[in-house]
Please model this.
Amino acid sequence: MATLWFVIIAIMLTVYVVLDGFDLGAGVIYLIVAKTRDERRLVLRSIGPVWDGNEVWLVAAAGTLYFAFPQLYASSFSGFYLPLMMVLWLLMLRAIGIEFRAHIDNRVWQGFFDVVFSVSSALLAIFFGAALGNVVRGVPLDHEGYFFEPLWTNFKPGPHPGILDWYTILIGVLALVTLTVHGALYVALKTENDLSRRARDIAVMLWPVQLLLTCLSLIATYFVRPHVMTNYGVHPIGVLIPMVVVGSLAVMAWANRQGRAQEQRQSKKEKLAFLGSTLYIMGMLVGVAFALYPVLLPASTEPVYSLTINNSAAGHHGLVVGFIWWIIGTVLTLGYFVFVYRMFRGKVRLEGEGY
Amino acid sequence: MDSALLIHRLHFAFTITFHYLFPQLTMGLAPLIVVLKTLALRRHGEIYNQAARFWASIFGINFVLGVVTGIPMEFQFGTNWSHFSRFAGGVIGQTLAMEGMFAFFLESAFLGLFLYGEKRLTPRAHLWSAVAVFLGSWLSGYFIIATDAWMQYPVGYERAADGSIQLGSFWKLVLNPWAGWQYAHNMSGAAITGAFVMASIGAFYLLWGKYEEYGRIFVKVGVVAGCLFSVLQMFPTGDQQGQMVFRHQPPTLAAMEGLFTEQAGAPIVLIGQPNVDEGRIDNPVIIPGALGFLTYRRWGARMQGLDAFPPEFRPQNITLLYYSYHIMVGLGTIFIAIMMLSALLLWRGKLFQARWMLWILLLSLPFPYIANTAGWMTAELGRQPWLVYGLMLTADGYSKTVSAGNGLFTLLGFMGMYTVLGILFLFLVRREIERGPAAEAVGH
Model:
């Protein structure tokens, strides 16, 4: 049962990164691709009706983590105290950046919120990457299963690391690039003409960087935590995951090139490129989850202090009951998402509709 | 008091108090927006649609702040109260996770549709999206109340081998009798806020002499809803909530009422200042014998005072608890008077000309917020010294690894951030009100 919840939470977090990832990424490129007032409005319209729903996946995943693995929730949230609080502040700034901007049609007001929205989006992408880096690298858990990490120590991943060291910063930058590409492909898909082309150009330009950082981070991960290969050795089927990652990168490159060459069949290629980016994110995150299992949060101090699905899970009855309502809730939620995304499908335009 | 404990308590108290200023209006306005949309459909009146759009825009600003100040609440269970989370997460994690899965997805998905999709939907579908937002926000309220109710009156749990608390019975948790009355009382309180805000803005337009046709609609809808919920707030929901406290948290009731010693024919204190050192109420204005009627349903019954309970199990902050409770009840009584009188004038067709009554409605706007806040302070201060009543002390629940210095750092950060958010909120809402309901909706 605990394994099932491990899988469920991994799925929910992956869905969160795929969905909120594109609106975060759209925020990162926002100041760069959208030059005119109308173009900025178009980018905001493309994420306006959905960003809040996307963010709920984070809240729902955190809630699910809380109920399925209370011990993990308690120690990771208190241990990552400072960066989590900063994530909360950034989420606030970003939300008001999107929502309050439109209320006053004034260049100073809108210019201010444009910067707030874009900068907080970029910082969030880096923070989320660094958080993932911390989980993979391990944290200084004590014998009671608690820890407290300062923001930085000596920037080296040792037994007593800080939130930021060279490894987690590397993962943070990888996350920033990945979500930027993801967001750029989304904007390319949802808009037209110059704006769409500019967004795609950013994705094309960043592709080699993404490839390079992916390789670097995989090597670095092996260097920081040699254990990550164990599960791949025991279950060779895991090798499919890196193949998905490589394949998705190839798909993105091909679709972007084709999209450039044949303007008339663009829309299909844009979809394909966005799908490639989605697959890439899924592949990377599933790869991490696969490598970690059954550990949830590795200890950098003593391996026995690591939090695993066995020493962190809630009682059996709670997990069984939770599974029943989780299934019902998920089916309903998928229904809403399909409905809402269908209502707002297609390219966004300015004239006419309220969308 | 250990300073880390104090900081973590202030951290939660400050962020939750600020947070709840927004959901109470969200939950209060949502049903009123449904009413306006229904009137639009029934009477084919475009004015009702325009009125609904106006309130939807205020709802939208309010909702954003509710969401961004709400996420920190969920996180703080882990960040600032990790020992509590480890102890009780197996139970309250259920309700908090269900809130995300059932309420937030529903609410956020359909709010996007409601705010952005009016031209893509048929009028009926647009009404249904308003209903979905209403359901989502009220459902979310239930899961939070069920969580708090479990902390007030824990049911349906088992103790695991490692000392933590685990779920024993899902239905007992979800159908906690405490949650039922607390929910009714709380939602009625939120509806009062929504009704007063709507009536107050309507009164403002009538007194201003602008957008008067909208002003009349807002006052009418606000007063009818306000009258209904002010009465429900007192009876049966407030009365039954009091019964729950009386039965399951007797020291809390004694502290709320300022009853220091056991006595026959205990009075209800209307006004008076508790003097904890001397164990009496100074300058009391009382109704003799009435407390027994409220609790035992018998005039002049014998009541236990605070002296019946060991000092370590009495609420620590008796004076603040006493005042919170009295402010809540006092304002609740005044709300009934205001709304009954307004309803009477409305019925006689004189309300829109009675400028003195419109002034009262206009100026009453902040008071439901104060009453709701005071009500929550009564509930949470009354639960002390327990974090989970009878199972875990507040002093044992906070994050031992997060020092007072780190806690104060983020508390100050939240104070700064919330000051900015509060100013922006007031600024934007004031602007919406001045632009008036006839203005075109803003959007990207």
About this structure: The beta strands of chain A are 295-297, 307-308.
